[in-house]
Amino acid sequence: EALAAEWMLEFACSCLCRHFAEQSGAEFWRWRDVAQALINGVSQIPPHQKKTVYLCQLLIRIAQGKNLGLQFENDQKISPLESALSFWTLLEREEIKLEKLHEEIRRLIQIQIVAVHMENRYFKEAAEVLERLFTDSESDKPLRVKLATVIKTKDPYVPLLQSFSYSLLISKIKSYIELFMKENETNFLIQVCRKY
Fold this sequence. Notes:
mainly alpha, 10 helices, double-stranded telomeric DNA binding, elongated, Telomere_rpt-bd_fac_dimer_dom, Serine Threonine Protein Phosphatase 5, Tetratricopeptide repeat
């Protein structure tokens, strides 16, 4: 059962990736439910499946990133994109070779966390989020300062937020998915299906 569940989770993740990349909403949500049920059924994530689980959780949250009313964490203040950032951090720890792409995606998620709050006119919350995002004052100090300035303008359409848009984030995530799919071409269920 455990082995079959692993195969099914790999398959669900590859379907989730494909439908995220194709932006086919209904299919994405169907596979989200399948992946979530499989993930919830695992008492402990086997080390070789951590990336698969983290990627599923990341995609589910990115797809809902603009929906501030949705909660993935127990803390009501944590937006879907903040939750996505925590899974992105876990994914980064599992890989070494994609440093440039990792950094680009991390920066885009951070900027979009602030941008989504501003688009919804939640300026006070945007400032609070900024504090949570950059607890270490030296980490990414230039970005922190720029975002603090943007929040003070109370203008969600400033060039910084336009240059690092949500659609750019989605396209970078799609680039990451492509690499993930190439790396996981040996997906057992897909191999079996191709034989028939």
